Amino acid sequence: MPDVSRRSATAPASPIRRLYPLAEEAKRRGKKVYHLNIGQPDIPTPEEYLQGIRGADVEVLAYSPSQGLPEAIEAFRAYYAEWGIELAPDELIVTAGGSEAVLFAFQVVCDPGDQVLVPEPFYPNYNGFSHLAGVELVPITTTREEGFHLPPRQEIARLITPRTKGILFSNPGNPTGVVYREEELELLAELALRHDLFLIADEVYREFVYEGVHRSVLSMPELRGHAIMVDSISKRLSACGARIGAFASRNPEVLAAARRCAMARLSPPTLEQLGLAAFMAHPRHRDVMLGMVEEYRRRREVLSEQLSHIPGVLFHKPEGAFYMMLGLPVDDAEAFVRWMLTDFPGEETVMLAPGEGFYKTRGLGADEARIAYVLKEQDLVRACQLLKEGLELYQEVAPRAQV
Amino acid sequence: MPDVSRRSATAPASPIRRLYPLAEEAKRRGKKVYHLNIGQPDIPTPEEYLQGIRGADVEVLAYSPSQGLPEAIEAFRAYYAEWGIELAPDELIVTAGGSEAVLFAFQVVCDPGDQVLVPEPFYPNYNGFSHLAGVELVPITTTREEGFHLPPRQEIARLITPRTKGILFSNPGNPTGVVYREEELELLAELALRHDLFLIADEVYREFVYEGVHRSVLSMPELRGHAIMVDSISKRLSACGARIGAFASRNPEVLAAARRCAMARLSPPTLEQLGLAAFMAHPRHRDVMLGMVEEYRRRREVLSEQLSHIPGVLFHKPEGAFYMMLGLPVDDAEAFVRWMLTDFPGEETVMLAPGEGFYKTRGLGADEARIAYVLKEQDLVRACQLLKEGLELYQEVAPRAQV
């Protein structure tokens, strides 16, 4: 039999994948599992969006233009205009989710063998696309102690090599909840200008800011030629399965290159673009999104309060998004997550995402886990109780469990 | 400003793209343009499919598993079973259209610098994905005189190098309408086995066979380890904008590698998968698809009859799909297509796809054009009249037009 390619054989699988069978097995034993490990919100998708899909007047479900339907492009433009960002119609491309926008960014910015800096801990899916695109991610390590804000300039500058083509960052951050401050964005801008790098901002959590102010790379005039913005409606419309995102820039060469990438895959899904157009045309659309954000703001408060009562658990209260990196009082967070699924007694348990998968630097994150606060308040409270009980019991039995 | 990557700057744009502004300009002048140049059918998407989307009971429009929703996997399995192909649930992956399945195939089969053989003329979108994946396409030239069937064994075998990893072919063929004969598939199978190559069959036109019998690579037991099948519902459900396709194989390593590619992009669109499940559960689903095929069969007859009355136009009556490569009595088919859009007098004109874009070998296809018979009969008749008039007039004025 022929061998599969090295790139596909070595493509990184999500580390959490190998824990799923344990969660499934626990459920088969009748256990209720609180999933704090995934970024799939439980909030209903707004009726205004779903109705836009159901009511779409479509006789032939045709390809959309590869850049996106004009209606969807207008909807994105109207949305950005609400954030004070004016974009021309040809300055954005509708993508199959934020994922495809990230892929386009890697393809446009890098040839195989090039490097992109990225603050760690970072969203593990960056690994998959960068690997398949032959791009090396170089981590800028950030710490919980500093609230996952950027390290001093020289620590970033020393990572830049002739192969460095860009800096990718998510703002607000997954998994850290960091919202970058004005001076941090200015630092990144200065580095990008000085070293001729693209600045790729993943802004899918733009709406979810609880402290500080979000600033888009597209609102920084000096970055006109350097900025690429990656976006998605998945989170702000609780519509992850819609697969609608956007790639935006003000650099004509970047846009031309991204359009070529977009042509290859023909088009993003048509109906979900019409849904977005209908949603944005709805007078209540901003209220709907704000309602969503308020729900996460409350969850963040509840979660922070609950976690503060668990001895040994360390965290920085997230400024945005809906994630939190926890420091756990264990040596091996993955072993603890496993144990919670296999050995923790009782009818219920909780699943976290082990921290190592969010770091590129080997050894970091071993005692950490990510929480996504995508469950309703009462479930978050119960999940925290289970986590507390689990940690207490695990610390008693751990010497045995870890043998 | 930083430079964009070489790969994105040099990614092939669809050659037809540069003609679109001329078509738009003609329409602005009030001209009706019959588009025989695109593979976007005009046939309404079956209500049974659209109803499956509109009626989907979805509260949270969530990610589907990256392999696809279990319901959609079952729907594909049920569909293949109707063709006598039994697949296990983990032997297929739901993709964002056939396009993504082709991309996964390139990524799984090849590392950058590897080669894939492909009979030409071929579907131009193979160029985009192979380029972005760093894969070199090596053409196996076929001719209208031979009905675009494969050349003798030695002409294919001599193209195989140590860098050759696979043979990609569409069956039935876009743009040729070829349906490969049993002995051709056996020849490809023998070459794949002898040289340890993957055989990648793009079978999205499986339903559209008017002469001969379609045989899937998945029905050839000796190819168990070597066969990859690429599929899509775009054409058989006239649902190009749904972005639902499939990648299938019986080779566990291929499947594992493709699942890793699939994980990186999270999931295909959710609602369109539910639509497919509803469609396949509908008792009339096979009749609906057969009705679609009958419509194309009639169009093929009408088109062939009409074209046979145009002096100097050469074609092989297509055995499948809904395309036809025409030999035109002009030196430069692209110049003729342009002229039809800019200079042809009257209220109406016709747009074809110039032939060169379907060939990799330079110089081939200059006097050819592809027709997609995706218009209703009366429009096909009118388009052929216009083509006839256009060719007559062009042959008179061509010496001047081509100066």
Main features:
39% helix, 403 residues, Aspartate Aminotransferase, domain 1, four-stranded antiparallel beta sheet, alpha/beta, homodimer, seven-stranded mixed beta sheet, 13 helices, 13 strands, Aspartate Aminotransferase, domain 2
Assigned CATH architecture of the largest domain in chain A: 3-Layer(aba) Sandwich
Cα-based radius of gyration of chain A, to the nearest Å? 21 Å
Return the CATH class of the largest domain in chain A: Alpha Beta
Structural class of chain A, by secondary structure, is alpha/beta
Distance between the termini of chain A: 40 Å
Helicity of chain A, in percent?
Answer: 25-40%
Approximate shape of chain A: globular
Tally of contiguous helical segments of chain A: 13
CATH superfamily of the largest domain in chain A: Type I PLP-dependent aspartate aminotransferase-like (Major domain)
Low-confidence stretches of chain A: none
- Element-by-element helix/strand order of chain A: HHEHHEHEHEHEHEEEHHHEEHEEEH
Write the layout of secondary structure elements.
The structure is a homodimer of 403-residue chains.
Chain A: H1 6-9, H2 20-28, E1 32-35, H3 47-54, H4 70-82, E2 92-95, H5 97-109, E3 115-120, H6 125-132, E4 136-141, H7 153-157, E5 164-170, H8 182-195, E6 198-202, E7 227-232, E8 245-249, H9 252-264, H10 270-281, H11 285-307, E9 314-315, E10 323-327, H12 333-342, E11 348-351, E12 353-354, E13 368-372, H13 377-401
Parallel strand pairs in A: 1-11, 3-4, 3-5, 5-6, 6-7
Antiparallel strand pairs in A: 2-8, 7-8, 9-10, 10-13, 12-13
Helix pairs in contact in A: 3-10, 4-10, 5-6, 5-9, 11-13
